[in-house]
């Protein structure tokens, strides 16, 4: 089967084509990506970014919204006492919803694997606080050193403090029955 003619031929670079202008115009046409759902729902695609943010009561440029006082920069400047005109906020619910969402407590999403929890419980149940003995245990598949085992137990203590206390409390009656 014959080859396609255009594929094997070397492509020549076109010096007359302005690639910067092509790239800029394509970038300008694309709608902005908005991560926050509150802003996304209140966004008006027919207005500019600055107009949309001003209507919501948000700052387009944080440097202009919260300027550094001249006194901190080392320059003394007298002011007239006039404040720049305040902008009218037409969509205050956006900022209110964002503040409400930010004030909610953050969920703890990090957890330990079930295997690690079982490993730590097994080690504590059989060896107590003797980390050297834990390191020599046959269930220590990954050949953890005593310090590594201690660190894993401390991580379990920090992640599940209540569960750890209950586990230790349940071990004490067993030890009393043995003696």
TrEMBL record:
Primary subcellular site in the record, as a coarse category: nucleus
Subcellular location: Nucleus, Nucleolus
Keywords assigned by UniProt, alphabetized: Nucleus
Tree of life domain: Eukaryota
GO annotations of cellular component type: nucleolus
Secretion signal span: none
Family: Belongs to the NOP16 family.
Keyword Mitochondrion: no
BP-aspect Gene Ontology terms: ribosomal large subunit biogenesis
Organism lineage: Eukaryota, Metazoa, Chordata, Craniata, Vertebrata
Keyword Manganese found: no
Pfam families linked to this entry: Nop16 (PF09420)
Name under which the protein is recorded: Nucleolar protein 16
